Every structure is written in C-alpha cells, then in structure tokens.
C-alpha cells in the first residue's frame, strides 16, 4: 500500500539540447548531490549527445565489435560509466532522458522504477499510434522485436541518474559498432518505422507520460549554468 | 563486528549481483560512505556502509549473485579486534534484522534438526551467515518443474533436502525423495511451514541463489541429520560441487541468437557423402607452391566455398531470406564463414563471394579469421551474409547439424576429410571422403531442393575442373 499524497510533487523538466556526454555527466552529478540534500525537486533532463559509445558497469569490451581505434577513426568517443547495463551507443537523433529522481519519495524499488521508465516510453509512443512493448528478460522498449529505446540506471542513496535513450531518427548504422550483428536483436528508430513526429513533439509526449506514470507535475525549468 | 547485508532494492527483488567492492579489506570506511555496488536488471546501485570502521572481510566476491539479506562482508568498529567480548554488543544489533527473516523459514526446514537455541546463543559472527544460508535453502527460488512435481506428488518441500546451488531443491532431489531415501527427509514441520513454502519465487534465474561464499559455513555446520547419506558433494570439507560463473556478453548473445534461430526456422539437415579425392590430390600437389607464392596455406575451405557459390547461383532460393510472408532474393552472394573464437564464435562475411577465385576466397578466409580472432573486424564485415559455411571437420567431427545463421535460410556444414574404403563399380578403392551437411529452413526450402543443391555442391567437388593457380 502506498501512502496517499495530497499534493502532487513537482518534477522539473530541463531540455538541454545537444550536450557532450561528459558535460551531461557533470550536470547529473551536480543535480544528484543537490537532490540528495533536498535542495531541488525531482528532475527530468532531456539531452542529445554527439556520437559516443558508453560501457556500463557490466559492460565487456568483447561486446564492442570495433576496437577503440576504429571507433576513434569513425569519430565516436568511448566512455566508461557507472550506469547499469552493458555497452550502448548515443548519438544525434536520440532523445536521451536522465531523470534525477529520489525513489524514497516514490516506491523504493529499483526494478519497479525501470519498469515504469519502460511504461513512460510505451505510453508516449502510443500517442503516435506506435505499439511498443516490453520483452521479458530484456530491459528496454521494443517494437516488433527491434529495440527502440535502451535503459540503464545508476542509483546512489535511492537517487537515480542515467536513464533512457529513445531512437527518434538515429542513424542506426552506428549501432553496428557495438554489438556483433547477427548475434543480437535488431535496433530500430521511430523514423525507420515511418513515424514522422518531430523531436519537440516526442519530447513533449515523453515528458507528459513521465508525469502520468510517476505522478509528478512536470514543469519546464531553465538550467542555470554555473 | 557489523554484518553488511545485500539490501532489498524493491518489493519483488529477491537477489542482487555484487558488481564492485569500493573498499578493500583493511580499508577504513565512514558510515554512509559508498561501500559496494550491486546490479539488478540494468540498475546499478551504490550501497552505503551501515557503520564506520574498517572493512574486516569480504564474504561475497564481485560478480556473485546472492539473495537479499545475505551477509556480504563485515565491518569491525576498530575499537577491538579480539572479536570476543567487545564486539558482542555491536554484533547483537545487526543480526536481528537477519534473524527476523530467518526465523520463519528456519523454522520451516530445520526446527528439529537445528534447534534455534544454539544458533542464537553461539557466537553471532558464525551463526549469522549460517542461518542466512538456510534461508536460501527453503525460501530460494524453485524451478517451475520442481514446483509442479511437488504439487503433483503432494510433496512437502520442507522435507526435501536440496543439493542444488545454495541448497536449492532440484528435480533429482525430488526423485530421490520419492524413491524413498529416508536419509533425505527431515523431521516433520510445524504448522507455520506451509506459509513459507508455496510462496512463488519471482522468475527464478539460473544465476540465482548462488551464495557460494556462504556455502562453506553451511557445509561445516552441525546439521548432519539433513545431509543425504550418499552425497559426496555434501561431504564436510569437500570442495563445492559446482562453480557459478556469469556468462560473458558474447556468450549471452550467442545463446540468444541460437535459441532465436531454433524458434524461427524449421530446421532440417540433409547429409550427402562427397568424394574429395580429386580435391585432396589437387591440394597436395599445389600446397607447397601456393604457400610460397601467396604466403598463406591452401585449405579445403575455398574449394567448398567455390562449389557452394556456384550451387547458390543455380538455386537462388537457398541464397534468399524470409520477411513476413515475402521471399527476399539477394542479388549478391555474401558468404558467411563461421570462425571459432576462444570463447565464442563469429561469422564474418565474404562479400560478392561469387566474384572470387580459389586464391581470392582463401585470402579472404585467412584474413577474416585472423581479424575475427584479434577483434579487428569492421561492422560491415559481419553483416549482410546470405548463406553460411561452417567447417566443423577441422575439429574432427564427421558430420553435424548446424544451426541456421538468421535471417539466412541454409547453412552448409563440412565434416572431416577422411580416407575410407569405397565400393566403385564392384571394386573396393581407398578414397578421401567428407560428409556435407546442409541445414535448411523447411519453411522456404523443401527437401528436394535442398538435396539438389547439396548434390550440386558434391558434384562440383567430385569433378573439380577449375584452375587453382
């Protein structure tokens, strides 16, 4: 039984546009610390990264098809991070969401959190007539057996960072660098599925679905750069 | 000493994987300072230290998956290292948390075998992990098969001694119990037991309830009455009967891909015996010169590839793939060559293989295999294959039934080339033969076509005419 909250808690939405992976890490780190101290409400950062391949805590170089030199040659950065999951790719055309969320004020349940993130994206895509789904045992959001959104989360004292990456019109060729194709399920994007929705439209739907699923009042906020 | 436990990160969560210790034994740690990290389903979580002191010992190694409340390490408060008098009050505090959960399931399985009194009275540092393990034994996930067997045979699972990982009850344990080995039964249980046993364990995974670090104390524990008489694996002091190791990502992907393929295609394998004598002789004659001229050796593979390519040109359906209810015919013949890696396999692709002669094919095979093993393949070199060849003969196999490399519809497996007596026109001759095994997707390819294709490959090899160099 969850306690009934009279007033809906606020979640600040910060759409930062194109941010380097390092830059986004620094922003998240800062917001996580402030969230832990209770100085700010929950946050939802939306960004887009330049080409980057990131290795999660459970990542293995074996899963990186191309050597780091080849990645560098293709203009792709390689980063080791503290999020869950293995290797993933971020790049232009992705809507990357980083919720900085205090789970003590939600369900104190990391698996429920991941399932809820999936629900947010499934709900958001439904607004564009796209039926996305979960695959048991394969975290992420899937359409017809192809992955449209990846999820990887880090938690420190119940405060979340990292989050999800939704392929809007990502150049899917870049995924070929990270997993031996033919040994994994395919990836897809909204554009590849014939959905012409703009970045702004999808971002808006994601933010709205986020508010509904997590029962938060999502409000736009400016990011003060220090 | 303060016990550090695997925390429960949500209602449905029964276990976690300890991914990283952020402190080493002997390191000082502050209360609430991150001590280790755990991973559950794409979520990594930093776990703060429950107390200030020194990390005294690590009981669960990195990479291990253990049930919640398992003691993963201990922190000494630093005031006293004698472990006798001074730590006692400190030790009293944390165990109740563990014991609270232990109590009911402990009662369920061991009420008579392991009386609670000695557990509570004995030194806390020893008792805590011991009872923690017992929780695993009964409260740990049971496989659907075990639950079904227990239900159908009306077995009280609390009376069955588990010999699986972490004391998990296996099908064999149930069979042993049913066959009346009284040694496997424990004393009858009190009425509260059923409350624990039927609890459905959420999604039992193979890696669950491994708790190897906690296993030795259990085996050394004074509960002889529940140890099966004929169980060498459970001999006190014996090495653990099994070792749990997480799959590499590549292994997981291969597993996924193989099952996916088996679930997708209607696999059928047809096997033809091929007389390789002509090719063997040609190779024997040329191999020295070939090596000298090109710098790599001449194998049977380019001959097989060349024959397969010609047959694919004649029977384009074998070079096709399926998309929904459409047949996709590929203009190019892009030949996948399975390459065994140290701990896996990969299938690099020779593009436009029909445009290459024996030298070109051999060069591509040598190059792709070498770069596959050193992980230097480019992404476009492992994609777009339209047909694959796997050469298990090089490992001595005479024939096998390969799994189709999706989304292709056939794969040719080549067995070892061996000399054998063959009847030719009622005379016995010694010939070099090999089995050609074609696995095809019966959704698209019928047996007649598969055999025509394989017979074509066989015919080209048996009557080899093409110049090699």
Q: What does this 3D model show about the protein?
A:
The complex is a heterodimer of chains A (226) and B (469). With 226 residues, chain A is α/β, with parallel strands linked by helices. Chain A is built from 4 helices and 11 strands; from the N terminus they run E-H-E-E-H-E-E-E-H-E-E-E-E-H-E. Chain A has helices at 21-36, 68-73, 110-126, 199-214; strands spanning 9-18, 42-48, 52-55, 77-80, 87-90, 94-100, 133-135, 138-143, 146-156, 159-167, 216-220. In chain A, the strands form 2 sheets. In chain A, strands 7-8-9-10-6-2-1-11 form an 8-stranded mixed sheet, sandwiched between helices. A 3-stranded mixed sheet of chain A has the order 4-3-5. In chain A, strand 1 (9-18), helix 1 and strand 2 (42-48) form a beta-alpha-beta unit. The longest helix of chain A is centred in the middle third of the chain and has 17 residues, at 110-126. Chain B has 469 residues and is α+β, with helices and mostly antiparallel strands. Chain B folds into 2 domains: 2-234, no CATH class; 250-462, Chloramphenicol acetyltransferase-like domain (Chloramphenicol Acetyltransferase), CATH 3.30.559.10. In chain B, the strands form 5 sheets. In chain B, strands 9, 12, 15, 16, 17, 18 and 19 form a 7-stranded mixed sheet that branches. A 4-stranded antiparallel sheet of chain B has the order 1-8-6-3. In chain B, strands 5-4-2-7 form a 4-stranded antiparallel sheet, with no helix packed on it. Classes of the chains: A alpha/beta (226), B alpha+beta (469).
Topology at a glance:
The complex is a heterodimer of chains A (226) and B (469).
Chain A: E1 9-18, H1 21-36, E2 42-48, E3 52-55, H2 68-73, E4 77-80, E5 87-90, E6 94-100, H3 110-126, E7 133-135, E8 138-143, E9 146-156, E10 159-167, H4 199-214, E11 216-220
Parallel strand pairs in A: 1-2, 1-11, 3-4
Antiparallel strand pairs in A: 2-6, 3-5, 6-10, 7-8, 8-9, 9-10
Chain B: E1 2-5, E2 15-21, E3 28-29, E4 34-40, E5 43-48, E6 53-58, E7 65-67, E8 71-76, H1 87-92, H2 94-110, H3 116-121, H4 124-139, H5 144-152, H6 171-178, H7 193-196, H8 215-220, H9 249-264, E9 267-275, H10 277-294, H11 301-314, E10 320-323, E11 326-329, E12 335-337, E13 339-341, E14 344-346, E15 349-350, H12 358-373, E16 387-390, E17 410-414, E18 418-424, E19 427-441, H13 447-462
Helix pairs in contact in B: 2-4, 11-12, 11-13
């Amino acid at each position: 039984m969850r306690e009934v909250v009279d007033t809906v808690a606020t979640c600040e939405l910060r759409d930062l546009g194109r941010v380097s992976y390092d830059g986004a890490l620094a922003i998240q780190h800062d917001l996580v610390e402030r969230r832990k101290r209770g100085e700010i409400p929950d946050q939802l950062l939306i960004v887009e990264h330049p080409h980057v391949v990131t290795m999660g805590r459970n990542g293995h170089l074996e899963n990186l098809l191309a050597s780091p030199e080849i990645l560098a040659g293709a203009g792709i950065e390689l980063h080791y991070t503290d999020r869950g999951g293995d290797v993933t790719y971020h790049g232009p055309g992705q809507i990357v969401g980083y919720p900085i969320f205090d789970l003590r004020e939600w369900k104190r349940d990391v698996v429920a959190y991941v399932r809820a993130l999936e629900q947010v994206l499934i709900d958001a895509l439904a607004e564009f007539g796209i039926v996305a789904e979960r695959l048991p045992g394969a975290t992420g959001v899937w359409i017809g057996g192809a992955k449209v959104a990846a999820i990887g989360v880090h938690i420190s004292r119940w405060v979340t960072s990292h989050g999800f990456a939704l392929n809007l019109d990502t150049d899917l060729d870049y995924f070929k660098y990270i997993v031996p194709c033919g040994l994994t399920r395919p990836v897809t994007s909204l554009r590849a599925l014939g959905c012409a929705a703009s970045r702004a439209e999808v971002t808006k739907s994601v933010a709205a679905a986020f508010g509904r699923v997590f029962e938060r009042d999502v409000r736009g906020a400016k990011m003060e750069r220090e | 000493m303060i016990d550090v436990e695997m925390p429960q990160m949500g209602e449905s969560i029964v276990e976690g994987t300890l991914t990283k210790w952020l402190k080493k034994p002997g390191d000082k740690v502050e209360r609430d300072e991150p001590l280790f990290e755990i991973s559950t389903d794409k979520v990594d979580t930093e776990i703060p230290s429950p107390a200030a002191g020194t990390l005294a010992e690590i009981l669960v190694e990195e990479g291990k998956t253990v049930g919640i409340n398992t003691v993963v390490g201990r922190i000494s408060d630093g005031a006293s290292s004698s472990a006798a008098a001074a730590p006692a009050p400190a030790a009293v505090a944390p165990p109740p948390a563990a014991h609270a959960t232990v109590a009911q399931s402990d009662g369920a399985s061991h009420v008579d075998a392991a009386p609670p009194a000695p557990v509570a009275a004995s030194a806390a540092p020893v008792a805590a992990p011991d009872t923690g393990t017992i929780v695993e034994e009964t409260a740990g996930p049971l496989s659907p098969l075990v639950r079904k067997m227990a239900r159908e045979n009306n077995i009280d699972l609390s009376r069955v001694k588990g010999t699986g990982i972490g004391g998990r009850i296996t099908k064999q344990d149930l069979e042993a119990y049913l066959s009346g080995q009284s040694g496997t039964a424990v004393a009858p249980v009190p009425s509260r037991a059923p409350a624990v046993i039927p609890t459905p364990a959420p999604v039992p995974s193979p890696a669950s309830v491994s708790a190897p670090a906690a296993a030795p104390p259990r085996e050394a524990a004074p509960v002889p009455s529940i140890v099966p008489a004929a169980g060498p694996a459970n001999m006190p002091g014996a090495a653990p009967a099994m070792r749990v190791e997480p799959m590499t990502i590549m292994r997981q992907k291969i597993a996924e891909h193989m099952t996916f393929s088996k679930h997708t295609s209607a696999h059928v394998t047809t096997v033809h015996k091929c007389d390789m004598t002509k090719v063997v002789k040609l190779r024997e004659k040329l191999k020295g010169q070939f090596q000298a001229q090109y710098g790599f050796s001449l194998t049977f593979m380019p001959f097989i590839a060349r024959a397969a390519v010609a047959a694919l040109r004649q029977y384009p359906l074998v070079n096709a793939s399926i998309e929904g209810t459409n047949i996709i015919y590929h203009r190019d013949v892009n030949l996948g060559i399975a390459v065994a890696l140290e701990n896996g396999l990969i299938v690099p692709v020779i593009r436009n293989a029909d445009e290459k002669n024996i030298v070109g094919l051999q060069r591509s095979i040598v190059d792709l295999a070498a770069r596959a093993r050193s992980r230097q393949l480019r992404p476009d070199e492992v994609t777009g294959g339209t047909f694959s060849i796997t050469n298990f003969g090089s490992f001595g196999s005479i024939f096998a039934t390969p799994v189709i490399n999706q989304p292709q519809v056939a794969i040719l497996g080549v067995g070892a080339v061996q000399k054998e007596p063959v009847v030719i026109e009622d005379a016995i001759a010694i010939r070099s033969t090999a089995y050609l095994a074609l696995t095809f997707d019966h959704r698209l390819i019928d047996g007649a076509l598969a055999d025509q294709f394989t017979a074509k490959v066989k015919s080209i090899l048996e009557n080899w005419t093409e110049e090699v160099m």
